[in-house]
Amino acid sequence: MRLLIDDLTIEKRIDAYLADYLQEYSRSRIQGEIKSGRVLVNSTLVKPSYVIKSGDVIEINLSKLSSLFTPPVAEDISLDIVWEDENMLVVNKPSGMLTHPTNIEKTGTLVNALLYHYGKENLSDINGEFRPGILHRLDRNTSGLLMVAKNNKVHEFLVAKMKSGGITKKYLAVVKGIIEQDEFTINKPIGRNPNQPYKMAIIPGGKESISIVKVLKRFSNATFVEVQILTGRTHQIRVHMASIGHPVYNDTLYGFGKMKIKTDEQVLESYKLSFPEPYSENLISLEIPEDEKLEKVLNFLQS
After folding, report:
1. What is the pTM of this model?
2. What percentage of the chain reaches a pLDDT higher than 70?
3. Annotated catalytic, 182?
4. Domain ranges for the chain
């Protein structure tokens, strides 16, 4: 397995990073693998305390690891392809679908579908054979536009564009309460919650996280917003909106429980995406309509 570290702000020990990534294994197990020389960084042996940095390439000898960590399998799952050329594609991921397998759920994900329709040989492997083609991810219950790379060169090109701000990602969300400002920026650092590691939180020393919020419509006790993210942190919009007292509608992880109309968790959609077409000067701008979940909640609020 080969991993390219492409987060410019990351400051994390390699044993902690791999324990998060390879969730089947404990941190102590990962430390043992590193000490045994089965993990290299830039083709060099390192200690478990090594702090990874942007540009590092981590190589892991998976043949020595437990057979529990098996590569994902191809599954005949339909894909809603919004745009495609010979180098990449953009899919509309439905709410309820994981982007890639986890230690608990290994089937029914976007990766399983991609392997069936394209084969692993036609997807980038920079993020390893367990996340083929995956450039970025959307939470299970967040729907919308997601880019997939068909080869490593394009993968690296798009990652560089994401880092430099050359790719625009905008989301639609319904949040609790009435937001008075028409447009504002949330700039609060996000990191893993030290007391609840399955959650993220605003914490000192977290990674820089910037979201631009624009009000589209106000209701009696909810607000319809567009959020542009300038950084791509885990759960960024959900954490940021909850931090200002306006959690995403029906987000039980960061909000205050279910609201009047029931949906499958957070009402959040990645609806607009702009990126430079690889090997071209063309700017591709994509936009999809509100998904069923958003439409259901907006209809309820309007009525």
Report:
1. 0.79
2. 93
3. no
4. 2-64, 81-164, 168-302
